[in-house]
Amino acid sequence: MAQHPQAHPISAVHRLLRGGLIWLPALLLAGCFQDVKESTVHPETDTGRVIQHVYALVTWIDAVIFLIVLGLLLWAVFRYRESRFKPGEVPKQVHGNPMLELVWTVIPAVILVFIAVPTWQGIFRAAEPPTTDPVKVEAVGHQWFWEFDYPDKGFVTGNEMHLPLNRPALVHTTSKDVIHSFWVPRLAGKIDAIPGKENLVWFTPEVAGTFYGQCAEFCGTSHANMRMRVVVESEADFDAWVARMKQPQLASTPEAKEGEALFAQKFCVVCHTINGRPDAAGQVGPNLTDLRDRTTIAAGLLDNTAANLSHWIRAPRSIKPGVKMCWPPVDSPEAACGPLPVNEEEAQKIITYLDSPSAGATADYLQKAQGAAGATAQMK
Ligand code: CUA
């Protein structure tokens, strides 16, 4: 009686492997597209280009070596396959070949020297930051947000760093708690942010735009939620932003004024700073001055919209596990706590206050903001 062919248990594994092998190159190639927001292979700064040069050189050399080794391996497998020999027969045995050994010692040494030269050049260059008119920023890592301190300008902001185009930026990194890592792939990094120590990375942004960054050192529950943005803009736009950052939001409507009061009554001031507002000087959470200018909230997790802000204020731990923004106040991310004692109506008032333009905003900026608000109202 003929037996039914049974499905071999290996075949499922083979299918999976085959599927994986087909998709793997596609996955790898996906990293090469130009519009990838966090791509190290499309640098937009001088420092990024130096690193990219070494990286590309090593990658191409490695690719050639890989192909040569793979070719030789396949040749050996094919040339000395069992079916070419009689049973019990072995191919001609060889032992020792001084010339071959010399060649395969000298060639790697030459390749290493070839790689070492641009590597050293890059290291020496990184060790000497430019002194002509740089913008200094202290990037301080917190669980889980970034504090950006501009010591020469006298203010602090959170999660979104602004930099002027074509001027060197000196970013000193450190941390308030555990080790984090500053990384904006298209600009620079990674550079560790270590408590009690300062590291320096510098670069000159050459293209205007918003660049995406991410903490690149595992730092606890919400490590993956510790993102950042770097806004590169013209010198004039940068100066206008600095002026807005130096002064608090100006609550001009009754609702904004109520929000301003609630910001203290609901203890927001204990954790957050508003530059130029004496009662709001908390250091636990990010600085919230001129929040309306930020594209995101919650360390780059959500777009900066009223709906997202309301959700964030009322249920932050559902968005970012372990965040200390909860009630009663907690010291550690592991400690249990509930939502803030803020109802929906109060949250809306606080949002209206936070969304108010800075007292440092220029007439031009206010006019543009008015125009944008008018356009939005018309769209509704
Ligand atoms: Cu901070 Cu990972």
Q: Would you kindly provide a written description of the structure presented here, covering whatever features stand out?
A:
There is one protein chain. This protein is of the alpha+beta class and 380 residues long. It is 40% helix and 17% strand. Among the domains are: 135-245, Immunoglobulin-like, CATH 2.60.40.420; 254-379, Cupredoxins -  blue copper proteins (Immunoglobulin-like). The chain has helices at residues 10-30, 46-79, 98-127, 235-245, 254-265, 268-271, 306-314, 316-319, 344-354, 363-379; strands at 135-142, 145-150, 155-158, 160-164, 169-175, 180-184, 188-193, 199-203, 209-214, 227-233, 296-297, 302-303. It is elongated and about 95 Å long. The relative contact order is 0.09.
Give the arrangement of secondary structure elements.
Blueprint: H1 10-30, H2 46-79, H3 98-127, E1 135-142, E2 145-150, E3 155-158, E4 160-164, E5 169-175, E6 180-184, E7 188-193, E8 199-203, E9 209-214, E10 227-233, H4 235-245, H5 254-265, H6 268-271, E11 296-297, E12 302-303, H7 306-314, H8 316-319, H9 344-354, H10 363-379
Parallel strand pairs: 1-5, 4-10
Antiparallel strand pairs: 1-2, 2-3, 5-8, 6-7, 9-10, 11-12
Helix pairs in contact: 2-3, 5-9, 7-9
This protein binds dinuclear copper ion.
